[in-house]
Amino acid sequence: MTYPLLGSLALSLQNKPAAGPETFVGLHNYHTLFTASEWSKPFWNAFWNNVKFFVVHMLVQNPVGLLLAALLVTRIRGAWLYRTIIFTPTILSVVIIGFAWKLILNPAWGISQGILDAVGLGNLNQPWLGLESTALPTLSLISVWQNIGIPMMLFLAALIRIPDELIEAARVDGAGAWTIFWRIQFPLILPTVGIVAVLTFVGNFNAFDLIYATQGALAGPNFASDILGTFFFRTFFGYQLQPGDPYMGATVAGVMLLIILSGVLVYLFAWQRRLQNVQF
């Protein structure tokens, strides 16, 4: 892993003119990425789409995963079956996930029309993946559905480790389920909350496969679902009749690495240090 990483960073510091050998250009490629309109506009579009993609996961996937874990830890009947059903999409191929949801959401003959009609909401059916305003939110929710089993299992593992004596003592004192969760369980799993948050950040800013499987390299419509992963792919390998530029592609990859590294450092030096100060 280290050699390709260093090789990509080294490639981002070089360029090759139309006729001539490869030369070292320093940070010129990065300057071009952020200042030249033909590069900066699609880059910032992909970046902000990626931010929205991440925010949806943070606000929907992780809270719902925590809620499911809190329900399953109560030892409800059939908990093993619920865990299996919820976690199953996580182990499916992303190509299968993308293809299946394209079939479901097809506005002409997808089953989404029938489902909405059955609950009296048929007028809400529309080409969710074909509209600029709905493509990215729809893909974000599909990704949430696919990956929600991961935070659920991590939260569940943390909740199971809490000693039963603490829960029983709280119940003896008259605390309800909501009070037990917020005053005892949630504070004790804060380290896991931080880990899930940073894993979500890294995973979302590395995302590529679901967008590519459903929308292709152009991440349509009109680049409305374009994120950094698909922007990097098009830049490095090219698309349609546009040739790829490995030097600018490596530059995009370098910026992605910097973004991810910044998020991890914030977690290590802000969140993790704060938790250590509380514990010790």
Give a description of the structure.
With 280 residues, the chain is mainly alpha-helical. Helix content is 70%, strand content 1%. The chain contains 14 helices and two strands, in the order αββααααααααααααα. It has helices at residues 2-12, 28-35, 37-72, 79-87, 94-105, 112-118, 135-147, 149-160, 164-172, 177-188, 190-205, 209-215, 228-237, 246-279; strands at residues 14-15, 23-24. A hairpin with a 7-residue loop joins strand 1 and strand 2 (23-24). Helix 3 runs parallel beside helix 7, helix 3 (37-72) runs antiparallel to helix 11 (190-205) and helix 9 runs antiparallel to helix 10 (177-188). The longest helix is centred in the N-terminal third of the chain and has 36 residues, at 37-72. It is flat. The model has no long low-confidence stretch (mean pLDDT 91).
Main attributes of the structure:
280 residues, mainly alpha, two-stranded antiparallel ribbon, 14 helices, 70% helix
Show the helix and strand layout:
Blueprint: H1 2-12, E1 14-15, E2 23-24, H2 28-35, H3 37-72, H4 79-87, H5 94-105, H6 112-118, H7 135-147, H8 149-160, H9 164-172, H10 177-188, H11 190-205, H12 209-215, H13 228-237, H14 246-279
Antiparallel strand pairs: 1-2
Helix pairs in contact: 1-14, 2-3, 3-7, 3-8, 3-11, 3-13, 5-12, 9-10, 11-14, 13-14
